[in-house]
User: Fold this.
Amino acid sequence: MQTVTWQSVAAFALGVYWVAVAATVITDDREPTSTLAWLLVLIAFPLVGLVFYYFFGRNWRKRLAKDPWVAEVAGLAAPVMQRVRTENADAHAEAVAWALERGYEDVPRIIEATQGSSVLPAYDVEILVNGAEKFPRLLHDLAAARDTIDMQYFIWKRDALSAQVAAILHERLNAGVEVRILNDWIGNILYPKDELRALATAGARVEQDLTKLRQINYRNHRKIVVVDGVIGYTGGINIAQEYIDGGARFPSWRDTHVRFTGPAVADLQALFAARWHRKTGEDLFTDRFFPVRYPTAGRRTLTQTVSDGIDVPWQPAQRAHIVSFAAARERLWIQSPYLVPTPEIYSALIDAALAGVDVRFMMTGMADKRIAFWAAETFFGQMIDAGVRIYRYTDGFMHAKTMTIDGQIAVIGTMNLDIRSLALHQELMCWFYDPALAEEHERIFADDMMHCELITREMIDGWSAWRHLRNATARLASNLL
Assistant:
């Protein structure tokens, strides 16, 4: 009779583990290179690899596609959003015709096909290029709120700026205005919560999003403010004093936010309402938050909002970028603090440059995340060889997430050109089909170039072997950056 040893039991258990791991990862519907990488990690490092896979490797987009909540919130949103879209169907038709005439028709079409988000009119669109421009406007709008204030931020620090915001919110609560605040859990885990707790005690509803530890790799990076359902804000600026003056780390902070009114605000309200329902179960998809009549004073701009997140199956925001890269004929100017693109975005950027489009990419030249900063440098060489001009902003921290296409379309939102934003985070981008607004933003981009360093092939070739090795090693962690 053969003796059973601990070695044979361990070998059998390890074999079962390998089979189970292979079956789980292979059937998770991911790219082959990612599948092979996770298989290597899980097989080579059984315990540590399993922990990493649990938190950072599972395909939650696939899992959430079967979550009943997705259908539930879609059902709640349908009546009010269908009303808004039907009442503004002429704006969508006008935008599609405008895009078709100029060769951009695939952009509004793919956003509508992947997300059901049609073009809506926005009014009085304002580009706000730093916190000093945003916050006086925001504080004024908050102070004038009559019914509801909904605020969603990735970061809400406790400082001089947040104290001003909180003071106005307390005053509005005393006046009977309903205040809801939704912040990302991990994004705010290190910051004091006494100010937010005081607002909650005063009657505000304060919640944190994505608090389940198993989904720690997926964050809500959106910034949304909706006042009385009719004034909307979004962009890169969070609630913190450093977005005004650069704080202790940077001499200044360069960012972009956008404010507008009108029916296009409904898309921002819907994104907030969906995450709020996910967290609290409260239904905000009512006429109170989606007015039957929106104010229409001021200049009209055709606007389409697209979002991404693990609860959004087709990654519409990334796809819209890729389609627009292919549609660009003359100029494609992009700003993002980080550059750790998905293979699809990377290839599309290079294709546009090789096709003769004036592709310019501007990122921060002052790092807040050194590993991401180093990883970005591994993409520079091939991009420059293809004709992309890469600029690093050196006057402060560059945090804007924007794009202009041929001086015809302006895009402003929360999505960086890194894998976290493109594939893991809850994000949004507003597409403005408006040459005047696009030209305004091109002027802003040109002004920013005056404070940039142009990266050249000669500079890259002059980097040490150690720097290239450091950068390549940093790139291996791209899914975590």
Q: What stands out?
A: Residues 229 and 291 are 7 Å apart (CA to CA). The first helix runs from residue 6 to 26. The two ends are 55 Å apart (CA to CA).
